[in-house]
């Protein structure tokens, strides 16, 4: 298994519910290391750019409005199979379909406001990490 990096976002609903620490605990308990992190109030342009792949979807405007409704916590997670592992920790997109014990099942109530984002493939992870942290924004964890 390969060491990967993935982009994770604690979305505005979960930040507002004061769940950053509980969500970080789940990443760390699963062996994922936080190698970059920042709290950001996204602009509409930043959110639109991040979700550009969904531009034609009917929920695009609502998604962008939600993502700028309050600050988000953005982090890069590193570890073995980090992309898939983070997706498992988050659970299905729709919290009602997410397995018990996942972030979305435990902390979210609707597909519109589903607590967390995680990259879905190596290619998107690389693009998303650079989108928010550039080429040099990662702290190597050598200890
Ligand atoms: P993912 O976040 O689980 O990867 P995607 O299909 O990439 O799911 O969708 C991105 C985000 O768009 C979701 O996390 C969710 O917030 C929102 N979304 C997806 N499908 C719907 C929908 O049918 N209605 C409203 N929002 C949706």
Overall description:
This protein is α+β, with helices and mostly antiparallel strands and 143 residues long. It has a single domain, classed as 2-Layer Sandwich (Alpha-Beta Plaits). It is 39% helix and 20% strand. It has a 4-stranded antiparallel β-sheet with strand order 2-3-1-4, sandwiched between helices. The radius of gyration is 14 Å and the shape is globular. The mean pLDDT is 97. The chain binds inosine-5'-diphosphate (IDP). Inosine-5'-diphosphate is lined by residues 54, 59, 63, 93, 111-112, 114, 117, 120. This is Nucleoside diphosphate kinase. It is an enzyme of class 2 (transferase).
CATH classification, class level: Alpha Beta
**Mean pLDDT, all residues:** 97
CATH topology: Alpha-Beta Plaits
Instruction: Tell me the fraction of residues in β-strands, as a range.
Output: 15-25%
Small molecules bound in the structure, each named once: inosine-5'-diphosphate
CATH superfamily: Nucleoside diphosphate kinase-like domain
The biggest beta sheet is recorded as: 4 strands, antiparallel
Strand order of the largest sheet: 2-3-1-4
Helix content: 25-40%
Q: How many domain regions?
A: 1
Q: Label the CATH architecture.
A: 2-Layer Sandwich
- The Cα radius of gyration reads 14 Å
> Assembly type of the shown chains?
single chain
Class by helix and strand content? Answer: alpha+beta
Order of helices and strands: EHHEHHEHHEH
What is the end-to-end distance?
21 Å
Number of separate helices: 7
Q: How many beta-strand elements? A: 4
